[in-house]
Amino acid sequence: MASEKKTLTGSRILWECLEREGVHTIFGYPGGAILPAYDALKHSKIHHILVRHEQGATHMADGYARATGGVGVAVATSGPGATNMVTGIATAMMDSSPIVCITGQVGSKLLGSDAFQETDITGVTLPITKHNYLITRADEVAHVVREAFYVAKSGRPGPVLIDITKDAQQSNAEFDWDAAAPKMRGYRPDLSPAKAEYVKALELIKNAKRPLILAGHGILVSGAEMEVQMFAERASVPVAMTLLGLGALPASHQLNLGMMGMHGEAWVNTAIQEADLLLAFGMRFDDRVTGNVKTYAPNSKKIHIEIDPAEINKNIKVDVPLVGDLRKILQELLPHVGAVDRCEWTARINELKGDSAVRDIQNLPDSGHLYAAHVINDLWRETRHSDSIVVTDVGQHQMWEAQYYKHETPRSLITSGGLGTMGFALPAGIGAKVARPEAEVWVMPGDGGFQMTMCELATIVQEKIKVNIAIINNGFLGMVRQWQEFFYDKNYEATPLISPDFVKLGEAYGIKSYAVKRRSEVIPTVQAAREHKGPVLIDFQVEKEDTVYPMVAAGASLHEMIRRPNPLMETGDDE
Ligand SMILES: Cc1cc2nc3c(=O)[nH]c(=O)nc-3n(C[C@H](O)[C@H](O)[C@H](O)COP(=O)(O)OP(=O)(O)OC[C@H]3O[C@@H](n4cnc5c(N)ncnc54)[C@H](O)[C@@H]3O)c2cc1C
Ligand SMILES: Cc1ncc(C[n+]2csc(CCOP(=O)(O)OP(=O)(O)O)c2C)c(N)n1
Ligand SMILES: [Mg+2]
Question: Cα torsion for 372, 377, 381, 387, to the nearest 10°?
Answer without folding.
Answer: 80
